[in-house]
Amino acid sequence: MNKPIIILIAILSGSAFAQTENEWFISQFNLLDKDSDGYLTLAEIQAKPDVIRQTNFFYQGSFEFADINKDNLISQAEYIANEQDTY
Ligand SMILES: [Ca+2]
Ligand SMILES: [Ca+2]
């Protein structure tokens, strides 16, 4: 009877880790989103070089790369997808 409980704990702790990682990305996103409209503009990103240094935006052309739908805005989903990419 113990086995399902152990598996359940393993699943829960796995998702808890992913949750923590996403929460970190969202907290960084919110720091960058100066007008809190849920999107990052290039100006908003350039305004926070200290935050950007800790993200995947810290290289030339990264804004264009992260902007998947090419609307010149980085949504929270686009931001998280870009941060989850490892180079
Ligand atoms: Ca914004
Ligand atoms: Ca976009």
Structure description:
The chain has five helices and two strands. The mean pLDDT is 87. It has helices at 2-32, 42-46, 49-52, 62-66, 76-84, and strands at residues 39-40, 74-75. The chain has one domain (23-84): EF-hand (Recoverin, domain 1, Orthogonal Bundle), CATH 1.10.238.10. Helix 1 crosses helix 5. Helix content is 62%, strand content 5%. A two-stranded antiparallel ribbon has the order 1-2. The protein is elongated. The protein has 87 residues and is mainly α. One calcium ion binds next to strand 2.
List bound small molecules.
calcium ion
How many strand units? 2
The succession of helices and strands, N to C, reads HEHHHEH
Read across the widest sheet, the strand sequence of neighbours is: 1-2
- Low-pLDDT segments: none
**CATH homologous superfamily (4th level) name:** EF-hand
Q: Please, how many domains?
A: 1
Number of helices: 5
Distance between the termini: 43 Å
Secondary-structure content class? mainly alpha
User: In CATH terms, what is the fold-level topology?
Assistant: Recoverin, domain 1
Average pLDDT confidence is 87
In quaternary terms, these chains amount to single chain
Largest sheet: 2 strands, antiparallel
What is the CATH architecture assignment? Orthogonal Bundle
Gross morphology: elongated
Strand content: under 5%
As a whole number of angstroms, the C-alpha radius of gyration is 16 Å
Name of the CATH class: Mainly Alpha
Q: Which percent range fits the helix content?
A: 55-70%
